[in-house]
Amino acid sequence: MKIRILAVAASLALLTPQSALAWGSKGHMMINRLAATGFPAAMPAFVRTPDAVREIAALGPEEDLLKGSGVSWDADYDPGHYLDLGDDGKVDGVSLSALPPTMKAYALALELEHATPWSAGYLPYSIEDGFEQMRDDFAYWRVEAYAAQHAKAAALRRGFAIERNLREVLTLRDLGVWGHFVADACQPLHVTVHFNGWGHYPNPRGFTQAPIHSLFESSFVNRYETDALVEARVAPNRMLAPQHLLSQAEIGSIVEAYLRGTGAAVVPLYEIASKGGFNRDDAAAVRFTARQLARGVAELRDLSNLAWQDSLYVSTGYPSHGVSDVLAGKVPLNAKLLAGMQ
Ligand SMILES: [Zn+2]
Fold this sequence. Notes:
CATH topology: P1 Nuclease
Number of helices: 15
Mean pLDDT: 92
Number of domains: 1
CATH architecture: Orthogonal Bundle
Shape: globular
Bound molecules: zinc ion
Structural class: mainly alpha
Distance between the termini: 51 Å
CATH superfamily: P1 Nuclease
Strand order of the largest sheet: 1-2
Largest sheet: 2 strands, antiparallel
């Protein structure tokens, strides 16, 4: 049975361009954990408790565990873990610096090159979708937490508290799952056409054709990377707090800059791999890998914080109310405030 499962897995690996588990479980848990332990005090306490950090860390590998769920799931979601970025800075003719605002528009642009998001990968949209979801989670939490304290009737306060508690469960789940994609995007082999050996592309420097994907992200990380090595390389927060609801273009440009940084690490990775650096305890390889993991930690920490701050500018409910208006006491705290309580 086991052999059969392995055989199926191997045949699926041939069908899908990138089916490896980015970073392996250790790398994913590490990025989620260190990002969560770095959340600033301005973020709500429920995402910063030791239990919350453990849950966010444990959910790091979740989206990889779901790979192989079945034909429908795999075909839809597995390509959301990567982006086949070429050496020309383009994904099948679509420039990383001019990615369309939506998956639908991206699909139409790729169609001109006879490609689809499911062949070229759609990692940027996994990250952007997750950011918008986090921002909405935090917006609802702000309203529910406020109303649970300030509604006049005790029964209403209890009702809002139940909704707030449920939102905390959902938010931690969404954050942990989303963290997976933010982490995938700092794995250079997830942001390149050279995802498992250089492949059939111009190769003047004779980079390795060996299947290095799993060696790099799992075997090497498991053996040589530690929290301390990564933490020492995590940059301070450079994302400015918005004073308005971030537009798709603004979110997109943050994600693009992050992916561009990862893309720039592809050649340095191949320089190390081609010298066999990931086959041994090589100082340059350890430093390089710790730096990539640290980029993921900082990005997840700062994007989460940005989603929290930006949630102040969201409108929630039907009919909708501005979160800041609710927090300013301008909206009646009754059962109509949230759709779920009607
Ligand atoms: Zn992944």
